[in-house]
Structure formats: C-alpha cells, structure tokens
Prior knowledge:
Blueprint: H1 3-13, E1 15-21, H2 27-41, E2 48-54, H3 65-72, H4 88-93, E3 96-99, H5 102-111, E4 120-122, H6 143-167
Parallel strand pairs: 1-2, 1-3, 3-4
Amino acid sequence: MGRKSRKKKEKRQEKLVVFICTANICRSPMAEKLFEEALAKSETKQNIRVFSAGLTAANGDKASENSCEAVKELGLDLSDHRSSSVTRGTLQNASAIFCMTESHRALMHMYFELPENAPVFLMREFVEGAEDKELPDPFGQDLATYKVCRDKMVESIPSILKWVEENF
C-alpha cells in the first residue's frame, strides 16, 4: 500500500466527537478539553478528534473567564479556545454528538439533518444513578457554579469514554 493510500485509510478511520452547548464559551469548551485529556490518558487505540460548538455561538469568542479558571485547577488550558457555531459540515462528519441539555438535543434535531451514524446524547446520559442528566448553563454566574458544572462533566467522562470505546 502506497503512502498516499495509507494516509487516506487513516483519515477515513478518524472519528469525531462533538460537544454542543449554547454559545461555545462555557460548557462545551470545558467538555472538549476534559475529554481530550481523558483520551490522551486512556489506552484507546481509536483515532479520535474532539471538537466543540455552540447552537448560537458567534465565531471567534474566547472561553469565559470562569470556564478557564475551572479547568485550570485541573491543569488544563482554555486560553486558545475560540468559539465555533454548529455547522452542517461538522455534524455530517461527527461520529457522536454530546449535548448539555435536552433543549440542545431537540434544537439539533429541529434545525439540522443529522447523519444516522452520529447519535446525539446528553453528556451525562450514561452516568449511572445520576438524577440530573442535564448540565445547566453557568454563564454569568460565580466560579463556584462553574466548578460544580465542571465536576459533573468530570463525573461523566468515564462513561462517555467507555461508550466511545465500545461503539467506535
């Protein structure tokens, strides 16, 4: 197999995991970073790319200060994050989509023709015993609220990683 053929094959095998929130400045950037870190630490052999976007995002906004601070405590850096609006192209390339709330999921189905091979879940959907499957928007609230949101995301990461490893 030639070098070009091998590159094409590798590219086709890449999976895209997308995290969706409202403006792509609070929750989904934190989720993206947390999941990237989990993938890096995992033993998965999958070729997975992680991306985040917002349903009403303005392209190019920085992550909120409190989101940056909340993940900084875990040794992660969001300073290079710039918001992106959800696009049809991103969704067509997605292998799995994780939303923060049921309203995000409903809007995704309402506004976009989603590919059959890209299921749409809530980020906390696979957390066993969790009564709160949604991650409310911390925008405009204090750092403590962001930390609660972050901690709920951290709690959900192992179940998402397990799902990805079993289904990709």
